[in-house]
Amino acid sequence: MSEKKIPYKIYLEESEMPKQWYNVRADMKNKPAPLLNPATLKPMTAEELGAVFCKELVNQELDDTNPYIDIPEEIRDFYKMYRPSPLVRAYCLEKKLGTPAKIYYKFEGNNTSGSHKLNSAIAQAYYAKKQGLKGVTTETGAGQWGTALSMACAYFDLDCKVYMVKVSYEQKPFRREVMRTYGASVTPSPSDTTEVGRKILAEHPGTTGSLGCAISEAVEAATTREGYRYVLGSVLNQVLLHQSVIGLETKTALDKYDITPDIIIGCAGGGSNLGGLISPFMGEKLRGEKDYHFIAVEPASCPSFTRGRYAYDFCDTGRVCPLSKMYTLGSGFIPSANHAGGLRYHGMSSTLSQLYDDGLMEARSVEQTAVFEAAEQFARIEGILPAPESAHAIRVAIDEAMKCKETGEEKTIVFGLTGTGYFDMVAYEKFNNGEMTDYIPTDEDLAAGFAGLPKVE
Amino acid sequence: MSEKKIPYKIYLEESEMPKQWYNVRADMKNKPAPLLNPATLKPMTAEELGAVFCKELVNQELDDTNPYIDIPEEIRDFYKMYRPSPLVRAYCLEKKLGTPAKIYYKFEGNNTSGSHKLNSAIAQAYYAKKQGLKGVTTETGAGQWGTALSMACAYFDLDCKVYMVKVSYEQKPFRREVMRTYGASVTPSPSDTTEVGRKILAEHPGTTGSLGCAISEAVEAATTREGYRYVLGSVLNQVLLHQSVIGLETKTALDKYDITPDIIIGCAGGGSNLGGLISPFMGEKLRGEKDYHFIAVEPASCPSFTRGRYAYDFCDTGRVCPLSKMYTLGSGFIPSANHAGGLRYHGMSSTLSQLYDDGLMEARSVEQTAVFEAAEQFARIEGILPAPESAHAIRVAIDEAMKCKETGEEKTIVFGLTGTGYFDMVAYEKFNNGEMTDYIPTDEDLAAGFAGLPKVE
After folding, report:
1. Yes or no, beta carbons of A11 and B11 under 8 Å apart
2. From the CA of B396, how many Å to the nearest CA of chain A?
């Protein structure tokens, strides 16, 4: 162990920021399975993917051999406006818990989007601009991704069309207004601006929308317009690649003080944050250089790792996207009563799914009220009001620190604090009023989701 | 000028953070006038003030001779959780404006309270805890101060009673829930929990409250309870003292790179941020060591510096607090139609008022729509969505940078970016929809306010 005094916040110098993203697939012996064309069940080609996604992003999506990919200077310059993010030593939390464990968190919430999503949004906007496109389309549920993309598009002067699930559009007007302030057009989904939207409206006149429907509208809006492409904020390999900036900075900061983590914890919805945080550490593990205990934390209400199946499935409930092999609850599975909107996804990144299937990390599911108890405790002692998503990681970090208190072990725990909860106060209000409940799907609920899995050999 | 490359964000090391606050009054030849007891019109004694405020804070309030006051270690430890705040070089904004000016901003919004208010809240909570008090009371309008105080009280395990103006309580439920998450009790004001509240409710049954009424309730709640004191987030000398941490960090960061600012700009409501930012620079000016051009920016709708009178007046509309000599519009002046709640105060810090009266700084008033235009431009290019209050300073910083573009001068401009606008989206929505209007009080409006000034020799 180092003799250097560890500050509350470890900030890197600008010159220490990563100049390349790390592509964990390059070090995986078992590569993640390719995306399949749902019509032919054959791997999607670059050309097929290029009709939906930007060209350079397709290259990144398919590249499972190059370990390092240069971060263009324009993206690094944007990163410098809000990065490096601090790696914080949770001295106050450790003291409060009375644990011998050493707790660190990488805080990604210090930017207006309020989360790590901006790391990939700016990259995707950059490649769209470089390709000479006019704009991009996307969907957003809780609104973090839509906000991040709006910010990125404003910076590069790109048009940004966001399809926002209608119920969120109405219940989260502030998120909507942040996006509009950044110049994005925000359309409640389903809408009459697309064929698929009109069809859904005709069939279900009173619907408040779903993420699946919003994806379908966003994809249609991109593919039927000259000069537009569709972009996505999680799940994809390219997103994990961009998010590796989180893990790379974390590793550099730890190395500066000769700190080796024992446990690395992240919340897992589609996998963008978890994948980004653990990538460089996982690389060391894959290459046999070091060992770490990785823990993916998911909500008990949407337990794709802990209770899902490893199978080919649609990425969207609208079934317009390619098939991905992943841990999934079935694209028809509808998770209820969970406020962590960013974790309400039926599937999981195919890269993380393969790593999990290979036994390289643990997954744990936690219940909502226990998550908010951890969120409140953390807020009161460490100051930051966490996003409900991030609080899943806090819950398990505290649990592990309390185990250390019992055993006397001085483990070093690192977790990802992906964002802030300023736009999630409806959920906090429920918790403050003692009105929050837990929800765990029954085996029957899960069976119904699995029944909808496509048949792929 | 230095040859060192200036990074996007200048962060100080923990060891470079200030260990003492700077008390600008010590270097003032003309001291700010003392607070007066409204009954006797004699200066308030420490004993009289001690009935309302914590003892150590009273000492700080009255101390106009000691230039440096130690920051207790417990407060410095808390500061380390969210400070040092970055001094940001606005490279992207400069490029967009095409100005030869060099623009820097000190960003105080990277904490859950969303503003600089936490710098004084933690100090006031600390001294209350040290005095063995059970809790503190305060009022809040827009909610930034109430949030900051709730966070500080949670950290020191103090009870926190916040009287929130009823209209804000109802229209800003998210702010309320943040405070509740930190364990504060939040009461809509006027309420039936105080005598003054009951009296007002009886006289005006449908009232939605006012800051003046909330102050009166908070003061009553503190002075009629064993073990409680009242705390205030702006205007007072003690608050400016605590906020000097902003200016001290700014100066250390600039000195590291041999940068000397020409112009220093801050928004001004009660004066806490402006006073804190400029204090150490003003000290140099007062001691004849250096010269700077200071600009206080206030809303045209509430122009206490630019159109107010320098006179003794009540600090609150309820007229229960001591009299302060300050630039004021009269405690009965009600500013309308301005969304920057933090700048809707009829008076001004007595320290800043004296400095302004002595010709040591300029004041400028700006209109609301022009402020939001600057806010939107700044958000899109620098990423951060500013609080409406902070955007007043952005407006003038951009104006000054554009003057440099005309003249070709390479001036160095520093401004205070006090906070984020995440809880101000109702105002942004009005702006996005083109529904925002300006309001400038007429001379008759002002005359009505001045007519209510108390007669003090």
Report:
1. yes
2. 20
Q: Which residue has the higher pLDDT, B310 or A173?
A: B310
3-state secondary structure of A456: coil
Domain(s) labelled CATH 3.40.50.1100 in chain B stretch across 3-17+82-114+244-450, 20-70+117-230
Q: Testing the interface with A: which of B181, B424, B429 to mutate, by most A Cβ within 10 A?
A: B181
Q: Which ipTM was obtained for this model?
A: 0.94
Average pLDDT over residues A95-120: 97
- Please tell me the predicted confidence (pLDDT) of residue B435: 93
Q: How many residues does chain B have?
A: 457
Average pLDDT over residues B416-420: 97
Q: What tokens does A275 get? A: 């994948």
Q: In this predicted structure, what is the pLDDT of residue A338?
A: 64
Residue A420 with chain B: CB contacts under 8 Å: 112
- CA–CA distance, A241 with A67 (Å, rounded to integer): 10
Cβ–Cβ contact B181 with A under 8 A: yes
Cβ contact B428–A181 (<8 Å): yes
Q: Which of B85-99, B285-299, B333-347, B421-435 has the lowest mean pLDDT?
A: B333-347
Q: What is the mean pLDDT of residues A290-310?
A: 96
What's the CA gap between B65 and B410, in Å, rounded? 37
Provide the CATH number for the domain formed by A3-17+82-114+244-450 in this structure. 3.40.50.1100
What is the arithmetic mean of pLDDT over A273-296? 98
Q: Check residue A337 and give its pLDDT.
A: 58
Our CA-based measurement puts residue A26 at a distance from the nearest CA of chain B, in whole angstroms, of 33
C-alpha distance from A174 to closest chain B C-alpha (Å): 5
Q: B170 in contact with A at a CB cutoff of 8 Å?
A: no
What's the gap in Å between the CA of B67 and the closest CA on chain A?
A: 28
Distance CA B142, CA B381 (A): 26
Is the pLDDT at B339 greater than 80? The verdict is no
Disruptive mutation site among B8, B76, B89, B376 for chain A (greatest number of A CBs within 10 Å): B8
Alpha carbon distances (Å) from B426 to A143, A171, A177, A183:
17, 14, 8, 16
Interhelix angle B118-130/B73-82, nearest 10 degrees: 150
Buried b or exposed e, range A267-280, using 16+ CB within 10 angstroms: bbbbbbbbbbbbbb
The answer to whether residues A400 and A263 touch, using CB atoms and an 8 Å cutoff, is yes
Residue A431 tokens read as 């918790």
Q: Note the pLDDT of residue B3.
A: 56
Contact between B122 and B75 under an 8 Å Cβ cutoff? The reply is yes
Whether residue A82 contacts residue B383, with contact meaning beta carbons closer than 8 Å, is answered with yes
CATH class (in words) of the domain with range B20-70+117-230: alpha beta
**Three-state secondary structure call for residue B263:** strand
For residue A100, the tally of other CB atoms under 10 A from its CB is 14
Other C-beta atoms closer than 10 Å to the C-beta of A411 total 18
In this predicted structure, what is the pLDDT of residue A3? 56
- What does the pLDDT average to over B299-323? 90
Predicted structure pTM score? 0.95
Instruction: Measure in Å the smallest separation between the Cα of B1 and chain A Cα atoms.
Output: 21
Of B11, B177, B381, the CB nearest to A425: B177
pLDDT at A127 over 70: yes
Q: Do B80 and A13 touch (CB under 8 A)?
A: no
The reply to whether residue A432 touches residue B385, judged by beta carbons under 8 angstroms, is: no
